[in-house]
From TrEMBL:
It holds the Pfam family Radical_SAM. PANTHER family: SLR0285 PROTEIN. This is Radical SAM protein. GO terms for molecular function: catalytic activity; iron-sulfur cluster binding; metal ion binding. Keywords: Iron, Iron-sulfur, Metal-binding. Residues 20-243 form the Radical SAM core domain. SUPFAM superfamilies: Radical SAM enzymes (SSF102114). It comes from Paenibacillus dendrobii.
């Protein structure tokens, strides 16, 4: 998606983990805005987007000097207790701008020198693989959570045309596994998929997280409703997948292929 880039100097980088992120002491967003511009993105409904005056997905703020600010905050936070970080809650840390700007990489460099107790890297971008060297240095204190909402490329193109292809994400999970970086596949939000989906992921990850709008958008599905998601399902005649029970079908398919306890639902799937 075409987007404009602005450079901003942040006053702070670490936000307190609240609501859905109760398992985390902090969230960390290297950017504001996200050029992936997913149709279902709940951030569209949040003040960071609604007060911007430009459509979500068309603007990105690069947080300059983020690493310096973060370095001080991390040290202070660690002096107070356990630090568990969710990166990121309202942007994708490996969206296209990161290839050149390297803000996310600079934050990882800080964490390698002064590790938090746990870091979850939430992304849908193969670019995460570039930072394998740093992720490995964090050992079992890190987990990459790769969003793979469906195994159907036509569905991906319908709902999130600005995001990396499904095959590229699956290949990235393979590369992370070969390198020894802990990772999970995150089917969130659940989109229409095939019966073979679990078989595709089984050799690649030991942990699956399944979430949907009704459990995971922070408002019981109301934010998603306001985004008009039902219409996007209707356009392709798949309204039955826009339902609070639709995730169960996907859960049962995965539970039949993955070991017990490795298929987790909603908040539990993102826990440190
Ligand atoms: S990648 Fe995440 S933050 Fe970016 S638009 Fe999609 S859902 Fe929103």
């Amino acid at each position: 998606m075409a987007y404009t880039l602005e450079y901003k100097t942040p006053k702070s980088m670490m936000n307190k983990g609240t609501g859905f992120l109760t398992g985390y002491s902090h969230s960390l967003n290297p950017y504001a805005g996200c050029s992936f511009g997913c149709s279902y993105c709940y951030v569209r409904q949040m003040p960071v987007s609604t007060f911007r005056g430009k459509p979500w997905g068309t603007w990105v703020d690069v947080k300059e000097t983020a690493a310096d600010v973060f370095c001080h905050e991390l040290r202070r936070a660690k002096a107070k207790g356990r630090v568990t970080i969710f990166m990121s809650s309202s942007t994708d840390p490996y969206q296209p701008a990161e290839a050149k700007e390297r803000v996310t990489r600079s934050l990882l460099e800080v964490m390698v020198e002064d590790p938090p107790d746990f870091l979850l890297v939430q992304t849908r971008s193969p670019l995460v693989q570039r930072d394998t060297d740093l992720l490995l240095r964090l050992g079992d204190r890190v987990r990459v959570s790769m969003t793979v909402e469906t195994d159907r490329e036509d569905i991906r193109r319908h709902f999130t045309p600005g995001t990396p292809p499904i095959e590229a994400r699956i290949r990235t999970l393979q590369q992370l596994r070969e390198a020894g970086v802990p990772a999970q596949a995150t089917i969130a939000p659940v989109l229409p998929s095939t019966e073979n989906f679990p078989e595709r992921l089984r050799p690649l990850v030991d942990r699956i997280c399944i979430d949907d709008y009704f459990m995971g958008d922070g408002s019981g599905g109301k934010r998603t409703q306001r985004l008009g998601m039902r219409r996007i399902y209707c356009e392709i005649g798949m309204e039955e997948w826009y339902h609070p029970d639709a995730y169960r079908k996907v859960y049962e398919r995965f539970a039949a292929v993955f070991p017990p306890d490795s298929v987790r639902i909603s908040q539990d799937g993102f826990e440190p």
